[in-house]
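Usage

Read records sequentially. Each one opens with the input sequence:
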Amino acid sequence: MSMRNQPPQADGLYDPRFEHDGCGVAMVARLDNEPTHDVVDRALIALDNLEHRGAEGADIRTGDGAGILVQMPDAFLRAAVEFDLPPLGHYGVIQCFLPTDPARREKIEQLLEMNVRVEGQRVLGWRDVPVDEDHVGDVAAASRPYMRQLFVAAGPGFEGHQMAFERKLFVIRRIVELAAGPDFYASSSSSRTMVYKGMLISHQLRHFYPDVADERFASALALVHSRFSTNTFPSWERAHPYRVICHNGEINTLMGNVNWMRARESQLASELFGIDLQKVMPVVRPGGSDSATFDNVLELLMLAGRSLPHAAMMMIPEAYRDRDDLPEHLKGFYAYHACLMEPWDGPASVAFTDGTVVGATLDRNGLRPGRWVETKDGHVILGSEAGMLPVFPQDVKRLGRLAPGKLFLVDLEKGRIVDDDEVKRHVATQRPYGQWVADNVVHFNDLPPREARALDEPLRALQLAFGYTQEDLRVLIAPMAKAGEEPLARTSRCTTTSSSCSRR
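and closes with the structure output:
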């Protein structure tokens, strides 16, 4: 039996590349960064109240997906394993979805252990994840993977360098993913966070995974997600949260985003990853959903040295052209990064965390709901609906909503909500992005005129040379040629000394 539900492959009019989804998202955090089970319990209550955002199949006990992302529950894990754990931050957990066939499972476990050692880290041991089979539907149970946790200790030279250790855990996971294919999936591989998820209905999660109901299972933040697979086929690994994000909506520019990432892979370089970068290619794991693909890229950008807000601003920029209300340093930031990456456009609401900051953002279209509230007892609650948790008016310190292109960020290490303006000013002024754009961008209109001459090249070659895209042909040229319509999109192109960009 396969370790997971295998959705149909492209056949006739159906193609899984065009799947979409819309879901429910919630976040609970303590501003003092003190891990408590109360945060986890509140998040699970919010998840229960998001059941209407999820979906079920013909088997009414099989859900499209539910899950929770938390900080490393250190006290619980120390009590749950039979081996000694190093200090928090000096060990990581790879949360594994493995085949139910013992022989295939053993091969992947050996592959994981071997790569842990090859990458200079130490294997501490394995733990089977307890599950209650009474709280899962028959369809979900038939494709349920075998779930185990691999505990890895930071090797020599990595103790005290948590981000370097995080990168090694990422590299180990990617090597095994590439070698094992669909037989292996890791819902998380980190020294900071853990993810429990599956083909569950919202209310089943706390019962299916007894771990999350244990009073010792504590965290200062939690992201939860209830999945509605509008046109998708649910599976255990497609449930949210992913390793960094949970997502409500869809990425409509997905195919272009993925193709551009593939095109740029040969030019990617990182001082922090070094030669390890080649081990994790391709960046995007084939067959993933739009949310999984977004998570793949965001995770790499973050581990390669960008802050999480920086990576989020890079991937989901706000509308900035021809705006008088944005400072020049922010326009420069967006203009510079427009030459590196295209926007990942929704409608999309994305909540994200690296275990130290947690936040959310809407894409520039702003077509997904998001409400947040800060309580007087130091909790911050955010979600796709109001009223997920019972918060009385007298307990509210302040509240608000997500706005198009704006960031909502909670810095747990600083113990406060950071305003959108402050976050973006800090990120956008770290480098002279605007000056780089001004010094290196060459506009076609500024080039000296040249004598026109006929180009004896095929039409397709000329279109590629001048940067025409399928969108240009479909949205601009075809309506003009067919019905004499005015173009509805304005295009401008620029070339830099190192790359080119096309923006609308």
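Summary fields computed downstream for this record:
- The CA atoms of residues 366 and 403 lie 6 Å apart.
- Residues 1-5, 491-504 have pLDDT under 50 and may be disordered.
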